[in-house]
Description:
Blueprint: H1 9-20, H2 24-44, H3 51-58, E1 86-98, E2 101-112, E3 117-120, H4 134-139, H5 144-149, E4 157-159, H6 188-193, E5 199-204, E6 207-212, E7 243-248, E8 281-285, H7 295-301, E9 306-311, H8 313-328, E10 336-338, E11 350-355, E12 360-366, E13 371-378, E14 381-391, E15 403-406, H9 415-419, E16 424-426, E17 429-430, H10 436-454, E18 461-465, H11 501-510, E19 517-520, H12 523-527, H13 561-576
Parallel strand pairs: 3-4, 5-7, 9-12, 9-15, 14-16, 15-18, 18-19
Antiparallel strand pairs: 1-2, 2-3, 5-6, 7-8, 10-11, 11-12, 13-14, 16-17
Amino acid sequence: MVTFFAGADSDQWLSSFKRKAVSPFSLTVLLSFIVVSAVLVNVSSKTPFLDPLFQRLNSFGSLSNPPLLHWPFSVSYTDFGNDTTFGSPNVSGIVQTIGNRSTELNRTVATSSDGKKVFHNAHVGDVVDEPQDASFASNGSESAQDSIFANASGNNTEPVDAHLGDLNEAAPKSSDGQKNGFDKPQDPSFANNGSGSDLITVIANGNEKKTASTDAHLDELTSSSKAPAAVTKSLKDCDLFDGRWVKDETLPYYPPLSCPYIDKDFDCHLNGRRDNDFEKWRWQPHGCEIPRFNATDFLERLRGQKLVFVGDSLNRNMWESLVCLLRHGVEDKSQVYEISGRHDFKKKGFYAFRYEDYNCSIDFVSSPFLVKESSFQGKNGSFETLRLDLMDDTTHMYHDADVLVFNTGHWWTHEKTSQGEDYYQEGNHVYPRLKVLEAFKKALTTWARWVDTNIKSSHTQVIFRGFSVTHFRGGPWNSGGQCHQETEPIYNDTFLAKYPSKMKVLEYVLKDMQTPVSYLNISKLTDYRKDAHPSIYRPDYQSAQNEIHAQDCSHWCLPGVPDSWNELLYAALLKTGRGTWTWKD
Length: 585
């Protein structure tokens, strides 16, 4: 308020005031300069003196509603919904090391009531140079998320949402215009860690830490992107196969090169593979927690029983994984042995690992089609056929098992089976031509009929493991198909293949069976894992004559993905809760 004085001096005072008064615009500029200078001094000060004022101003806001005071930095806020447990933000500079470069990231730090610190949405795209090599995008020493996460001081910090560039471009496509889930993305910021889910969970030193993906715009790239729901479902109600891969630094369950029973074709470390990130991913269903694999508990529940895998080499891959998982939990390793003393399991036949301390065995029976491979005497001589109406002769080796794990599928993709010319036989009739899906349905119907007739569900639990997706790019396995140098999973769901037609046939057959069958639907979860195949890391990849052999993009390195299949087998048995497998949430 301005007071005007009466008398002769008033005119003189007014004249002086008009000369000296500061305009509103100039006053605003001056005050803004003072406030900005105070904020900058406060930020650089070791003891910020304006924090109490900022906290008082921001006490009217929350992380889900922008506070009253806006910082002079490019910072956005992550929406925590109705969560009001987070206090006011403090400004902090975080030095992040990416490969061999250091980048100063201005981040908002929110401190929760339990003392955790969460770094919010530092838009790095405008302040850092694009990486010049693929080490940042693919397999550098530290990713944008991992470098902050490696906190040697032990402080409980969680990095969230570092925007590493503009990710509004469409998903990359291959030269033929089709979506290609195996080619490296062109945008380094996308290649770094674009997850198919809004959140990635990382586990270190046994503590689970949830962090938003470094690719915060990924929901614009995939329609199936979603944050994991809170753990609300019991194991009984859990869909084990609807989930995501989460980083878990406590894995693998057994050290590489520690198990002498891994096929040399699956032992990637033995064959020269040096990276190991592919071993550190765990499958996490949405909305529920599954029990971690416990070798001692598994063996105790299997005491006095027999578990048998029946199928092709992918089931042998899973069988060797379980043998090693369980062996690692046994103190006296000499009490674990193959009953015939064999160490090579590639030949067709029957193999059994005995766990003496528990009086149980884990067996494998080679039967790639489940039905019988045969021959037929035609006008021009004898030729191979596949009897769609008869089971393989190996059934006597496993009909009395306590747990049966079946699979078939990969041999149905070979040339002879896929073409279906003069190959499929029923009775004395050989089909001149039969579509592979129809033949597959007939074979599975024969298998289902045998199970319903010969398996007592009161004694034996039956599991069917689904189709394991392959990742050959540039051609099939025998025509130059490759998966070498794939070091990260697929993060974008739009790159995933369609649900296999053969598994639709399986589901059709299972619904008409009398015997309960647990379906391990691992197709989608394996589709993500283009990073975990042996590829060139196999004994016979390159011969002495430098002849290059086929890469293996079908089977899986061990330790690796089949360990997760067995963790899901463990969860599925507990979920069913029959016999010794009862479980309480």
